[in-house]
Here is the input.
Amino acid sequence: MLTARGVPPVDLARLSINSCMGVVVSGAELDDMWAVVLLLPLALEVAVAGGRAPDGTPLPAFASCCRETYHSFNELFEAYLRTSASTLECLAARYRQAAAYRAQYYPNPLLSGLLDACRTRGLDRLAGGPRYHSAVVEGFGWANVSDALVAIETLVFQRGVVTLPQLLKAARADYVGHEELRRMVGDCPKYGNDHPIAETMARRVLEAFIAAVNAQNGTGDHVAFRASLHTLNHHVTMGACAPVGLDGRRYGAPLNKQLGPSIWAALSGPTAVLASAARLPVDALPGGQALDISLPAGMLDDAAGRARFLALLRGYFSLGGADLQVNTLSPAMLRAAQDDPAAYPNLIVRVAGYSEYFHKLARPVQDDLITRFEAGL
Amino acid sequence: MIPDPSSTPMAAAPPIHELTDLIQRMRHEIRSVILGQETVIDQVLAALFAGGHILLEGKPGLGKTHLVATLARTFGGASGRIQFTPDLMPSDVTGFRLFDMKSQTFQLRQGPVFTNLLLADEINRAPAKTQAALLEVMQERQVTIDGETLKLSPPFMTLATQNPVEHEGTYPLPEAQLDRFLMEIDVGYPDLEAERRMLKATTIGDEAKAKRVCGPDDLLAGHFCAWTSGDWDDVCAKALATLQIPPCPVDAEIAATLADWQRAYAVPGWFGSIGEGHHTVDFHAVLTRGVAALAAEADAAADAQADPECAVTSRGMAVALRGLIAFAQRHADAADILAATVMPARAAALRRIAESCRRVPGAPATSFFDALQAVWLTYLAIGMVESPSANSLGALDRLLWPYYQRDLANGVIDEEEAGELLAHFLLKCGSYAEGQALTLGGQDEKGADAVNDLTRLFLRVILALGSRNRLSPSAYMTTCARTTWIYWHGSAPPASDNRVITPKRVVARC
Here is the structure.
């Protein structure tokens, strides 16, 4: 299969970890992480709003993607797909322009000379010189979309307890005055709990995202777009300005992090989180696609605890899991470090694709980590 | 940089062939005295006629002062020298007024800047205030002392020097002030033949003296000729083209769509950014073929390219790759100097580094030590031209394994020394580009476990250092157990990456 696609099998052995979480063919690939960031909950909100801005103004670019009303869940899902695909198409075109621009005005002969096959092709690293030029499309808030779609399907289209405009209106009001509706949204199955309904939807959302990204390829140029879910710690900053919580998320709260579930939605422990994540089609994604978990601080202090941890690692990987990031620090210690940073100068936490001294992190990121550790994530 | 028009005798501007002839005669005279520095002489003359100043970088004793005095002699100008020291005051540069008891008046004492050619020796040894005094003179070509502005007599040119070694206690020139110099020139050692002639001239008293070939006015006329001859519009267009990089174009339809989104939903910056990319360069080729061979390949490709743009691009890569070799040579020079001067106690280790840098990465590595040095120099050089946060190290345990295995078998190295070298290497990489990925373990091209003894040595070193480097073991339990140990230790939380599924990912992506 590899030969048929023009990729020599020897490249398999050249794969290596790249920067935070990518996987590249060493010496032959330019991997543009963060080439495109797609805020998926925004596409869903536009679709739910019928292609209109919050003030009711039509958005011309998305008029043909959406409908004023939806008679079935699948109609809404299709509208969401068209909206996100249309945005992605626009951003992919912008990336191609920008890459060509940088190749022309910011060439890098040394780096190009050290990437196969720039030297023989006579092309810069951004102009088609390397054998592989990947542009990574980061899908932010994919699990929030999945949870929101489960809630919409359940409450709007199956049980009929609320209409789509009513749900949108309540979410835009941050559910103030709609507490019962928030409770009902919260009670719907959520990704990360090893729940079949939620996991099926998560897989559907993810597969649709991957298909939309792959559809940007095949134009004959050298850029290959790859779907990815890396957020590093930007799920916090993006969450602060992200659209409404159709999944019940509070205004400004962090989005789901990387491959993991929303903090407040995962209530069944780390084993359930691992089981849910292992079912996702991560082999269709380019990088490690990290999942973050936090273990009780004392778990590795004795042989039995370490054996359990080994079993957890083995179990996750044998199910098809790709990349696991583990912290073993207690939330109490992190809170103490937050209150008295000078007393914890060497406290390191695994943030995302990298580790960092806790005292160097911004307060919102520290808060997110503490909340995550309390939730076992 | 542009000469003061009021000081330029426009009517006396000679035709271009006379200017060319003048430059040739000056060059001839200077070359008869300053041996083995032909390129430097040409660059200094170019700057002189362009009305610019020069920053000379080179070790002591390479004839920089002699060059300035010789240049001044060729046009009968005055030359001066200031040795910059930490206690040098601005008034030591520009001059000051001194109260004369006899006449009961303030008398002007002009500083050394009142000359034609000024050598500002080791300019980075004086604090910013004193540097600024000189740099203001260079820009304005005038000095203000106690409210009185005094113009310098043209021509005026400053040749400042910086010593590339012994940076302790220096005050590096800020970027904005470096802009005052038209050129920064590296003054290197002359070749052996020039050294032989120099030795002979200085020991038997056969030293040449430069003759005067023109006067200061001829030089000023030459200034004007240089600035006014040629196709001015073409020169301007070329110069401006290097400055005015147009903004990145965005298709109108795309721009409108993005603007729509941002207006409607007030979500800033979610559309992604065009980064410089992440990459792990071809360390395998660096180690097994050597950078000189890669440069030769780029040159051969340039010769064979039908498309002229591709030919230029390949040629540029060849030049850059040879630059990497030159960078290693300078690294070797620096290590030799440190061994001889500052760190004699570490002389043996520094000389070993110097010897290694003279071999790699230009030539293929033949030992573990050279292989590690080649990777480090390449990694460092790439980071100097590209964000170091975008460069990863790759599967070094596999790349370095053959060298380690061979040295171990031949008794050239033992595990302890290899571990220490790895520790130094990881500390350097970590301090230079914190948190970049190192890949360990995984599978080889046949799908077999790629973990080797060097993988385990890397793990032990990482554990000992409490490093934050990423860990990518295969699914084999011995490595998993080691990973668990590191988690347990708590200071180095790495990530585990299951390489068993990577073939699937490659299939999916290609």
Notes: Residues 1-11, 468-480, 483-510 of chain B have pLDDT under 50 and may be disordered. The CA atoms of residues 298 and 478 of chain B lie 43 Å apart. The two ends of chain B are 54 Å apart (CA to CA).
